[in-house]
Automatic annotation (TrEMBL):
<dbReference type="Pfam" id="PF00026">
    <property type="entry name" value="Asp"/>
</dbReference>
<protein>
    <recommendedName>
        <fullName>Peptidase A1 domain-containing protein</fullName>
    </recommendedName>
</protein>
<dbReference type="InterPro" id="IPR033121">
    <property type="entry name" value="PEPTIDASE_A1"/>
</dbReference>
<dbReference type="InterPro" id="IPR021109">
    <property type="entry name" value="Peptidase_aspartic_dom_sf"/>
</dbReference>
<feature type="domain" description="Peptidase A1">
    <location>
        <begin position="9"/>
        <end position="39"/>
    </location>
</feature>
Length: 40
């Protein structure tokens, strides 16, 4: 999806210049799906 920059806390960051080409991310909690756009 894009180059990720490693973080010592186990998180990652992405270059915001590519935000418009990133897909939505979906995750499910308790059977309910939540969608996040790149802007979120």
């Amino acid at each position: 999806l894009c180059d990720r920059l490693p973080s010592p806390m186990g998180e990652s960051a992405v270059d915001c210049n590519g935000l418009s080409s990133m897909p939505n991310v979906s995750f499910t909690i308790g059977g309910k799906t939540f969608d996040l756009s790149p802007e979120q």
